[in-house]
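Students often ask why we bother encoding 3D structure as a string. The short answer is that it lets us treat folding as translation between two languages. Here is a chain of 90 residues written in the first language.
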Amino acid sequence: MDDYWQLPYTLADQKLIERGGFMTKAISIALIVGGIVLLYFGGQAFNSVSSEVSRVFTGSPTNKAIMLIVGGVVATIAGLTGVALSGRKR
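And here it is in the second language, the structure alphabet:
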């Protein structure tokens, strides 16, 4: 009866799960998606009115815009590195 509720998967999926690559790849993809979202919102904040006013008086955009862009770049690079390294043979 317990076997009825298990999802079917292939032998390749079983090997991926046993090596721990499935979770690593899922986290890496989540980092890439999160990084892209942060970059989008960072670009929106960079081009906002408050950022323009900040640039007029200080010569640099707001801290929020900078932190969103930096966080997006770091998350995207970490995700890409995780995807690249999870595909390697150990």
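Translate back mentally: The longest helix spans residues 21-46. Keep this in mind for the problem set.
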